[in-house]
Specification:
alpha/beta, Rossmann fold, five-stranded parallel beta sheet, two-stranded antiparallel sheet, 11% strand
Length: 372
């Protein structure tokens, strides 16, 4: 009888414990979902007050009217223009399907050609002239007046490093002297996280619960092999460029510093992260920032080990004021991006045979003028 009484008390205690845990869990889930609703409302207010985020499809050249094949190729000759909140957004796609000026193939004799590849962070700008490759071109021309030089923006929103690896022959056919690569987020969010979700379906299911995601955060270490695939792809592109005598420059990837964001902007970043990672939902920006921090750490190790020309963009651009979301810049941020790349690109331009011939030709002309 005593044993039975003890068993009943033990079962009752266990039942109360389980019930308490369930109630606490439901309460925690409810609180997190209310917080999430507040973040969604904060993000909506941010969008209303920020003309660049509100019109990011135009700023980042993702408006549906521009595409021949969505997230793959722009429609040659496509154009759109609009003025919102006093800001002019104008996207013009050239006859080859890129948001850049027309360019000749084969390349004219003596021309130094720099090609920028990447995704929306490369193609972004209020106008074609305000993309970072166009700003880079203007600055380089001012530094080297008279030098035949152009910088082509071959950016395509939504693509990954694999896209450029698969189209490298086409890029090389444009006869670049220098290739500049800047991208990472599409690899992380649209390539690696979905593959991780396929390998760990239970985690994707569990993360439908905001509470379980908090209690059992994503193990970043498990993503490392996937992140290294992006770096291996960069290395493969770099080797192909080296074999072709082309200068190659890779940039690490920038994002707002989560320690410096305001509460309102942080909430906006949380919602924006959820949008980027909808194939494997991450509900807070800090998790994405941790993944990117791991990628950038491995990037630094990789470029030093492989002796690759590089720019540590993430160390230079982290001020939240330069961003409109987890990766895209304000117009000021785009200008700063061009400035960050400028010294390394200028060094590679000076190292090209065409530049050296131009300098020698200018020296010979100067000597002739002195003799006469």
């Amino acid at each position: 009888m005593h044993t039975r009484s003890w068993l009943i008390r033990a079962l009752s205690a266990a039942w109360l414990l389980v019930t308490g845990i369930v109630i606490a869990g439901l309460a925690g889930e409810l609180w997190l979902r209310l917080e999430r609703r507040a973040s969604i409302e904060a993000s909506a207010r941010f969008a209303e007050g920020n003309v660049f985020f509100a019109n990011s499809k135009e700023l980042n050249a993702t408006n549906r009217s521009l595409w021949a094949r969505h997230w793959f190729k722009y429609r040659p000759g496509a154009r759109m223009e609009m003025t919102v909140g006093g800001e002019l957004f104008r996207v013009e796609i050239n006859s080859r399907g890129y948001r850049t000026h027309e360019f000749a193939v084969p390349k004219p004799e003596g021309l130094v050609r720099v090609v920028c590849i990447g995704a929306s962070t490369t193609v972004a700008g209020r106008t074609n002239e305000e993309t970072y490759p166009a700003l880079l071109e203007a600055t380089l021309r001012a530094r080297h007046p008279g030098l035949p030089l152009e910088v082509l923006n071959l950016g395509v929103s939504g693509v990954t490093t694999e896209y450029w690896h698969g189209r490298l022959d086409r890029v090389l056919a444009y006869e670049p002297d220098v290739i500049v690569a800047y991208q990472a987020i599409n690899d992380i969010c649209w390539r690696h996280l979905p593959r991780y979700a396929e390998a760990h379906p239970w985690r994707g299911l569990a993360y439908r619960s905001l509470l379980l995601e908090r209690l059992f955060p994503l193990p970043i270490d498990e993503l490392e092999p996937l992140l290294m695939e992006t770096l291996d792809t960069l290395g493969s592109i770099a080797r192909a460029c080296r074999e072709s005598g082309i200068g190659y420059l890779a940039g690490s990837f920038a994002a707002p510093d989560p320690r410096r964001t305001s509460d309102a902007f942080r909430r906006h970043l949380d919602v924006n992260t959820e949008s980027w990672t909808r194939r494997f939902p991450l509900h807070d920006y800090e998790t994405y920032a941790a993944i990117l921090e791991r990628y950038n750490r491995r990037f630094v190790e990789f470029v030093h080990r492989e002796h690759l020309n590089h720019v540590l963009v993430h160390q230079e651009l982290s001020d939240p004021a330069l961003f409109i979301d987890v990766c895209h810049f304000t117009p000021e941020g785009i200008e700063r991006l061009s400035e960050v790349f400028l010294p390394a690109v200028d060094d590679l331009v000076r190292d090209t045979p065409a530049y050296r011939r131009w300098v020698e030709s200018a020296r010979v002309d100067a000597d002739r003028r002195l003799l006469h």
